[in-house]
Design goal:
The protein is α/β, with parallel strands linked by helices and 412 residues long. The chain has two domains: 159 residues, Aspartate Aminotransferase, domain 1; 237 residues, Type I PLP-dependent aspartate aminotransferase-like (Major domain) (Aspartate Aminotransferase, domain 2, 3-Layer(aba) Sandwich), CATH 3.40.640.10.
């Protein structure tokens, strides 16, 4: 058995994407900055791909700056905006559940004297837009709030947050790495001035991403060299990678309408069966998916806790059974501390350490979910029998209906 339930960490490169890339790894090897025909063909391919990626998020191609991925895009958006500001005192607003690419960049700015406000979220991971309004100061230069959380899947009310920032004349950036390709993303509708995305989260190659920069927004580069990418991102263009980004974006746009509901149904079934089959388990974050025209979480993601065991042990045990999932964000693997996201939504450290993320993808089938459900209860029971934190009743393998926590029930 070989089952992959870690699509939020990375996705396999789609066959169609690989086919589009191969010529630019073999015969079409020109430098996109060269003026001869080899370079012209490479440049034409890059611009086609830029247009494909722009179409996915509904912006103009010349508003996209190609980067090495979401982390670089976040850094360029945040550092570039703040350092371009001419204000003497500067202030940035973000949230406590952002990706480290945002949080650590903000920490760098703090060391440079920039004031940072970290807004708290509720137990489902939602940020109240009014918190942003209350946190605004005359010296605020940027609000950066992620679109969808990488660990619990929560989708923020960005339209409202962006409108509040716009009313105050403050730029708004969103890390949309985990939403792009999974749910509709329209930069105009969202009201974003800057938006980060990464190809490998939607079946493109690793090492390629983009930053949407609305026309009129000024950024200071964080890398220096040539005049590529509007002088915001120097360096020889990764032609094959950019072509892969474009092909993956087109594929995502074509499959978005059908794939979202399919993954939602599989995810909901998986959650319901886990709660029915495994005692002292529950769901972290929102249970609601899509209602009244609003996504409350991305369709493919669930975060589950199993009290009395360590998530790392569960992930390793499932891996030995041929099932890949995650003990949190891939970028935090190996960390001793519990997930900052799960702590931020109010989980006790023990429960945060007992939680795993399960994220589905294009190749996930009903049979895969069934295999996961057939395997998980036995693995959890065995680990609880070995855990010093397990109550005596559970250590003896007692069965019975699942005891769903009040938090999980309240999320329905």
């Amino acid at each position: 058995m070989k089952l992959y339930f870690d699509h939020n960490a990375t996705t396999p490169v789609a066959p169609e994407v690989l086919e589009a890339m191969l010529p630019f790894l073999r015969e079409e090897y020109g430098n996109a900055s060269s003026i001869h025909r080899f370079g012209q063909r490479a440049r034409a391919a890059v611009e086609r791909a830029r247009a494909q990626a722009a179409a996915l998020i509904h912006c103009e191609p010349n508003e996209l700056v190609v980067t090495s991925g979401g982390t670089e895009a976040d850094n360029l958006a945040i550092l570039g905006t703040v350092r371009a500001s001419t204000q003497a005192n500067k202030h940035v607003i973000t949230s406590t559940i952002e990706h480290p690419a945002v949080l650590r960049t903000c920490q760098v700015l703090e060391k440079e004297g920039v004031a940072i406000t970290y807004l708290k979220v509720d137990f489902n991971g939602f940020l109240d837009p009014e918190q942003v309004r209350k946190a605004l100061r005359p010296e605020t230069v940027l609000v950066t709030i992620m679109h969808a959380n990488n660990e619990i899947g929560t989708v923020q009310r960005l339209e409202e947050i962006a409108a509040i920032a716009r009313e105050a004349g403050v730029l708004f950036h969103t890390d949309a790495v985990q939403s792009t390709g999974k749910i509709p993303v329209d930069v105009k509708r969202l009201g974003a001035d800057l938006l980060s995305l990464s190809a490998h989260k939607f079946y493109g190659p690793k090492g390629t991403g983009a930053l949407y920069v609305r026309k009129g927004v000024s950024l200071r580069p964080i890398l220096f060299g040539g005049h590529d990418e509007r002088e915001l991102r120097p360096g020889t263009t990764n032609v094959a990678g950019v072509v892969g980004l474009g092909a993956a974006a087109q594929l995502a746009a074509e499959s978005l309408e059908a794939e979202g509901p399919r993954l939602s149904a599989l995810r909901d079934r998986l959650e319901a069966q886990v709660l029915a089959r495994v005692e002292d388990s529950g769901v972290n974050g929102p249970r609601l998916g899509y209602r009244d025209g609003r996504f409350f979480r991305v369709p493919n993601t669930t975060n589950l806790y199993f009290d009395f065991i360590e998530s790392e042990a569960l992930v390793i045990s499932l891996d030995l059974k041929g099932i890949a999932c995650s003990a949190g964000a891939a970028c935090s693997s190996g960390a001793v501390e519990p997930s900052h996201v799960l702590v931020a939504i109010g989980l006790a450290p023990d429960r945060a350490r007992a939680s795993i993320r399960v994220s589905l993808g294009r190749q996930t089938t009903e049979a895969d979910v069934d295999a996961f459900l057939d395997t998980l209860p036995g693995v959890v029971e065995r680990l609880r029998a070995l855990s010093p934190r397990t109550p005596a009743l559970l250590s003896q393998g007692a069965g019975g209906p699942a005891k769903v926590s009040a938090q999980a029930e309240g999320n329905n």
